[in-house]
Amino acid sequence: MRTVTQERALAILSPLAVLLLWQLASDAGLIDQRYVPSPAAIAKAGWSLAATGELEKHVWASLRRLSIGFVLGAGPGILLGIVMGLSRWVRAALDPLVAALYPIPKVAILPLLMLVFGLGDASKVAVVAMSVLFLSIINTTVGVVQLDRIYFDVARNYGTPWYRLFARVILPGALPTIFAGLRISLGVSLVVLVSAEFVASNSGIGYLIWSSWQTLVVENMFVGIIVVTILGVLTTFLLHECERLLVPWRQI
Amino acid sequence: MRRLLLAVLIGVLGGPAFAQPVKVGDLGILADAPFYIAIEKGYFKDADVEVSLERFNSAAQATAPLSTNQVQVVGGGVSAALYNAFARDWPVRIAMARTRDWPGYSSDTLVLRNDLKATVTSAKQLKGKMIALNAPASVLHFMLGRLMESEGLSIDDVSTINMAWPNMAPGMETKAIDGGMVVEPFATQFAAKGISFPFKRAADFMKSPPLEVSVVLYSKGWTDKNPDQARAFTLAYLKGARDYFDAMKGGPKRAEVVDICIKYTSLKDKAMYDKMHWSYMDPNGEISFDGLRDQQDWYAKHGFVATKANIEAMTDRRFLDYALENLGRVDDK
């Protein structure tokens, strides 16, 4: 118990130590504040953005796009991955397509997506969903394929119906790999979303970072970057907790 | 050994006066033409200045490396970024004017979808329309604001979205946007394709002061360390700017300048040079301080600039004065 507490304290203290060192280096003139503002200056800028409600607007815009895109990509991705994992024929048919489409930089096709989905949230949601989709397919397929065949044989011998096989064998067996894929997808989708918001948007954290750099309001740009890191940590924590609930047999 | 020493001595004394090449940040656009002309016609070589080009996507991206003297010269678009760079005391200085909008030479244009031609005839009717900008708090944002204000409205009466110029064409075709703030050749190209029509050019309503679009920026680190090279560079650059001015007015150097621009810029269609508006470039490099102050006031009023800079203090015209002393002034009309 004591070790867990110490670990948690260390996890909080290490970023604080970095901030403190950064502030001290700024105060001592070791870091040129004209280019890299001090944590205190960034906090002040963040406070101003929060007070005017601008920060909240950008955070919610990004969170909305991220959550909808993530669900729309992960849901079909997991289903397709399970089907591909169970059927070698489907796998043989779809594997080349997934291999061909997965490496396409999703932001590169954003102008095309904007034509199809319009300028609003839909195009950004689509780009997030696409980046999550392929990672979910790949990880889920691997998770299902690697299940020990003996479980299927035993289930078949006992005449287990398909829905029970799915609920008792396939899903629990593949879930750890599926969650590993979701964790990677979450990070990737945040990167893709921020990049998409650079291109054509007037809200979102990516827009805040891009427009602040375009106008050289460097403090606001750092506020945006720090908010992205906080969002990354919080969403990963949320996913981690979901995994703890859904896969309790796996110690993380 | 003696021969070797002699060779080294000859190398040192007989080599170019400025060994370090000047890195120029360019965007591959028509406004960069004086750099290209001065390279192609040997003006820089005549001044013993070696120049290398570093391509950037936007002037705002080039400002940071300019301030750290990684590049020495940039043709900088006037924007909130420029004033904020000054306010942050970034060591960059305005050396001379570059492009502005002038009647007959007005590249900066608000284009609207063709189907709006009958219904939108004045700025008042732009209220509620979705207009695309290539960058926030840029010269085109300011121009749109001034246009709205010219008929008693404000920038808040239109919706704006940021997108790259090439993306505005499909944006208008799908009616996702009603118009866009563009520069040439986009205004002419979109019109030729039947997508949009030029609704207002900057010079139609911004006359005094005119719309100051871009300036030539020098790195202070460079001019402090190497003022002689900066003087020589400016002299050669101004010769290039004057060739551009001649070409812009349809003078004898036009064909040659167009060929150089085709070689260096992304505009390869020769016929387009006769169809589109060229940006006005002052052959004496004189800066419109009224225009720059007007723009800074607007950015400050709309919250893009927190601290206003003293623009005269951010201008170093020693090099321009040197070039004008040597080349003399020419009629800028």
Q: Which class best fits the helix and strand makeup of chain A?
A: mainly alpha
Largest interface: A-B, 19 and 31 residues
Secondary structure: number of strands of chain A: 0
Rg of chain A: 22 Å
Query: What characteristic shape of chain B results from the CA principal axes?
Result: globular
Q: Would you tell me the structural class of the helices and strands of chain B?
A: alpha/beta
- The parts of chain A where pLDDT drops under 50 for at least 5 residues are none
> How do the strands line up in the largest sheet of chain B?
2-1-3-10-4-11
The whole-number mean of residue pLDDT values of chain B reads: 90
Q: Could you give the distance between the termini of chain B?
A: 61 Å
Sheet-strand content of chain B, in percent, reads 15-25%
The best one-word shape of chain A is globular
Helices of chain A, by number, come to 10
Pattern of helices and strands of chain A: HHHHHHHHHH
For the termini of chain A, the CA-CA separation is 16 Å
Assembly state of the chains shown: heterodimer
Largest sheet of chain A: none
**Number of distinct helices of chain B:** 15
What does this structure look like?
The complex is a heterodimer of chains A (252) and B (333). In chain A, helix 2 packs across helix 10 (218-246). Chain A is mainly alpha-helical and 252 residues long. In chain A, 81% of the residues lie in helices and 0% in strands. Chain A has helices at residues 2-27, 39-51, 54-86, 88-101, 110-117, 121-145, 149-157, 162-199, 205-214, 218-246. Chain B is of the alpha/beta class. In chain B, the strands form 2 sheets. A 6-stranded mixed sheet of chain B has the order 2-1-3-10-4-11. In chain B, strands 7-6-8-5-9 form a 5-stranded mixed sheet, with helices on both faces. In chain B, helix 11 packs across helix 12. Chain B starts with a helix and ends in a 6-residue tail after the last helix. The model of chain B is unreliable at 1-16 (pLDDT under 50). Classes of the chains: A mainly alpha (252), B alpha/beta (333). At the A-B interface, helix 5 and helix 9 of A face helix 4, helix 5, strand 7 and helix 7 of B.
